[in-house]
Write a structure and sequence with these properties.
Helix content is 42%, strand content 13%. By secondary structure, the chain is an alpha/beta fold. It folds into 2 domains: 49 residues, RecR Domain 1 (Helicase, Ruva Protein, domain 3); 135 residues, Dna Topoisomerase Vi A Subunit, Chain: A, domain 2 (3-Layer(aba) Sandwich), CATH 3.40.1360.10. It has a 5-stranded mixed beta sheet with strand order 4-3-5-6-7. Strands 1-2 form a two-stranded antiparallel ribbon. Helix 1 crosses helix 2 and helix 5 crosses helix 8.
Length: 203
């Protein structure tokens, strides 16, 4: 740390403000992170900065399922080992990580990038529903698993999707209710997720 440095330095204040914008990082946590970064060797902070920039430059969305990827299509969509007759619909890319960690689901995915929430101004046209319906038109999909979060927005989204998909003659299932209401998939443990997948029910 440079001699004469004071806690009210503009650069530090700006760093704290930016860190505070991250989800789950409150003012105190942002302050702790800022001072942690000040104490770390310059090489380490440069590596962190370069890694963040690299992610922004290299990572894109898969044109098929809209998962984050460095290749297009993503590894899951491009694999010939996946069950191409099943699509599991999730709200966010991190939900795929949670489901893949269980190692029991071997189908494809579709990421909505959100859930229907009129109170927050998120309508049906603001998430990847049209793209999903286009994927279902070729008749190759025999089951759609609705794996939206078990909260009000997730349930609204699941019900809306069921109304759209059922007339296509595709089996629509949802995760078993082993997941407590209000649970986000990315925070659910492997055992709970495995039971929810294995015990999925007709919508």
């Amino acid at each position: 740390m440079n001699e004469g440095f004071t806690p009210t330095t503009d650069a530090v204040s700006k760093l704290i403000q930016e860190l505070n914008k991250l989800p789950g990082i409150g003012p105190k946590s942002a302050q702790r992170l800022a001072y942690y970064l000040l104490r770390t060797p310059e090489e380490q902070t440069k590596l962190l900065a370069e890694t963040i920039l690299s992610v922004k430059q290299k990572v894109t969305l898969c044109s098929v399922c809209f998962n984050v990827t460095e290749s297009n299509p993503c590894a899951i969509c491009g694999s010939d080992r996946r069950d191409r007759g099943k699509i599991c619909i999730v709200e966010q890319p991190q939900d795929i990580l949670a489901l893949e960690h269980t190692k029991i689901y071997n189908g494809l995915y579709h990421v909505l990038h959100g859930a229907i929430s009129p109170t927050e101004g998120v309508g049906t046209g603001d998430i990847k529903i049209d793209e999903l319906m286009k994927r279902l038109q070729d008749g190759s999909i025999n089951e759609v698993i609705l794996a939206t979060n078990t909260n009000l927005e997730g349930e609204q989204t699941a019900m809306y999707l069921n109304k759209l998909i059922s007339p296509l003659g595709i089996r629509v299932t949802h995760l078993a209710r082993g997941l407590p209401f209000g649970t986000e998939l990315e925070y659910a443990d492997d055992v709970t997720l495995t039971r929810a997948l294995e015990g999925r029910q007709e919508f």
